[in-house]
């Protein structure tokens, strides 16, 4: 197994001065204290492969695969070392010489590229969530030999009834295309319901786009060919020119959709990216929370900043503004709210030990706030933190929601404040 000077962007690797400042911010290093789990160590190993001093042997591959690609090191690196990009390039090389894990292959190649299968899973999940007493099912799930499936089950959200739609009034005269993410199709119908309720209730016209997966999981796992196929499909098939804005309620989708222009470098891809907005960004830009009256709550709410939203899109204030729209809520910041939760796509399934250690730290930070509501703008983070609460804080009643779900749940139906444009 050989990497090679030509196959990795060698100049990226040379920038690291080995200063070690990434130690303080790297979630994997903080739990393992192992140099191979740190940006500096990972970059050094990748360089040794690029210089043909080592092959992609298992320990080096492990060091690459345990990187969350969270970007925390990149943000704090004085030498602007792009470790997330280096890991991406390393994964491309590793894919050429190592057979990918069967589960991740199934999820990436069969499930995420097939909207019909996602819809079928969505129907099944909805039925499963609706069963009130799951004791017998959980008993059988504990016996399930496939650990990955057991872990996914633990992250399922609570069942939520469909939300009634509000009558639309024309305060926002925009035509919105809703880029529905894969987790939304397979697990989070409630999230789609919430988004439709709020956006339609504000008067905007909103339609589902006929999109496939955004391709982010493939991009971050180094499968650039599938990423490009999906991105091109989306750009060519969703008729984005018919819409003023493309919204997404997934931080990871938003992050990559906004990068289609840069990554594909075509006029169409750039035009597509220019229309993309994260739902929090959209809500605050158009003053949408002000359109509704809300139930008064006495919740303590804390906000987790998904890597692809806070660091990736610089959207941190908007989800907090959404919280402040609900009367009676107290926003309490958790320590390290911008630290990865260890979800990172299929990371929690592929790297269970490291993922759980990172998750435990996140849950401890949540518990320190005494919050009864955690908001996260990414379905993968919601599933991971939901799992974490079940695992590490089972006696606490903590709801884990997307900000748009929290907003939608608390709108007083048929009580829209602003009725005219
Ligand atoms: S990756 Fe950046 S912060 Fe980390 S050791 Fe290298 S130069 Fe320093
Ligand atoms: S991307 Fe995240 S996990 Fe990977 S080395 Fe940087 S800080 Fe650590």
Overview of the molecule:
The protein has helices spanning 10-14, 27-32, 39-50, 58-65, 72-76, 83-97, 102-111, 115-130, 135-143, 147-154, 182-186, 189-201, 216-220, 224-237, 251-257, 260-264, 267-274, 279-285, 307-313, 317-324, 347-350, 352-368, 379-392, 403-410, and strands at 175-178, 205-208, 245-248, 276-278, 292-294, 300-304, 330-331, 373-376, 399-401, 411-416. It is of the alpha/beta class and 421 residues long. The strands form 3 sheets. It has a 4-stranded parallel beta sheet. Strand 8 (373-376), helix 23 and strand 9 form a beta-alpha-beta unit. The N and C termini lie far apart (63 Å). Mean pLDDT is 85; it is low at 1-6. One of its GO terms (molecular function) is 4 iron, 4 sulfur cluster binding.
Short description, anyone?
This protein has 421 residues and is of the alpha/beta class. Helices cover 51% and strands 9% of the residues.
Give a quick set of tags describing it:
421 residues; alpha/beta; Fumarate Reductase Iron-sulfur Protein, Chain B, domain 2; Rossmann fold; 3 domains; four-stranded parallel β-sheet; 51% helix; binds iron/sulfur cluster
Shape: globular
The number of distinct helices, counting runs of at least 4 residues, comes to 24
Rounded radius of gyration (Å): 21 Å
Q: Cofactors and ligands present?
A: iron/sulfur cluster
Alpha carbon gap, first and last residue: 63 Å
Number of domains: 3
The chain-level structural class is alpha/beta
Q: What does the average pLDDT come to?
A: 85
Strand order of the largest sheet: 2-1-3-4
CATH architecture tag of the largest domain: 3-Layer(aba) Sandwich
């Amino acid at each position: 197994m050989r990497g090679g000077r030509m196959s990795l962007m060698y100049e990226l690797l040379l920038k690291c001065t080995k200063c070690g400042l990434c130690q303080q911010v790297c979630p994997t290093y903080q739990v393992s204290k192992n140099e191979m789990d740190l940006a500096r160590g990972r970059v050094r190993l990748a360089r040794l492969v690029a210089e043909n001093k080592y092959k992609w042997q298992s320990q080096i591959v492990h060091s690459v695969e345990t990187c969350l690609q969270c970007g925390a090191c990149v943000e704090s690196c004085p030498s602007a070392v792009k470790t997330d990009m280096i890991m991406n390039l390393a994964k491309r090389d590793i894919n050429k010489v190592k057979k990918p894990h069967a589960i991740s292959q199934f999820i990436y190649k069969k499930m995420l590229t097939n909207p019909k299968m996602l819809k079928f899973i969505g129907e099944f999940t909805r039925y499963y969530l609706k069963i009130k007493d799951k004791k017998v099912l959980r008993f059988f799930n504990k016996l399930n030999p496939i650990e990955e499936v057991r872990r996914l089950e633990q992250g399922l959200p609570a069942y939520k009834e469909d939300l009634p739609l509000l009558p639309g009034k024309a305060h926002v005269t925009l035509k919105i295309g809703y880029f529905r993410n894969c987790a939304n199709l397979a697990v989070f119908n409630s999230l789609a319901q919430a988004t439709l309720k709020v956006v339609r209730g504000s008067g905007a016209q909103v339609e589902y786009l006929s999109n496939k997966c955004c391709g982010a999981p493939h991009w971050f796992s180094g499968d650039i060919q599938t990423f490009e196929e999906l991105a091109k499909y989306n750009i060519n098939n969703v008729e984005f020119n018919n819409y003023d804005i493309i919204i997404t309620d997934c931080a990871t989708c938003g992050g990559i959709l906004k990068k289609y222009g840069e990554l594909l470098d075509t006029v169409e891809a750039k035009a597509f990216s220019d229309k993309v907005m994260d739902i929090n960004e959209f809500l605050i830009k158009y003053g949408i929370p002000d359109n509704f009256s809300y139930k008064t709550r006495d919740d303590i709410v804390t906000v987790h900043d998904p890597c692809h939203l806070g660091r990736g899109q610089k959207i941190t204030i908007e989800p907090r503004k959404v919280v402040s729209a609900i009367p009676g809520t107290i926003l309490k910041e958790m320590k390290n709210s911008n630290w990865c939760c260890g979800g990172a796509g299929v990371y929690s399934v592929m790297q269970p030990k490291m993922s759980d250690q990172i998750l435990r730290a996140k849950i401890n930070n949540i518990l320190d706030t005494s919050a009864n509501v955690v908001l996260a703008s990414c379905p993968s983070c919601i599933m991971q933190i939901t799992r974490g609460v079940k695992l590490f804080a089972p006696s606490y009643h903590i709801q884990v929601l997307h900000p748009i779900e929290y907003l939608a749940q608390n709108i007083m139906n048929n009580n829209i404040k602003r009725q005219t444009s």
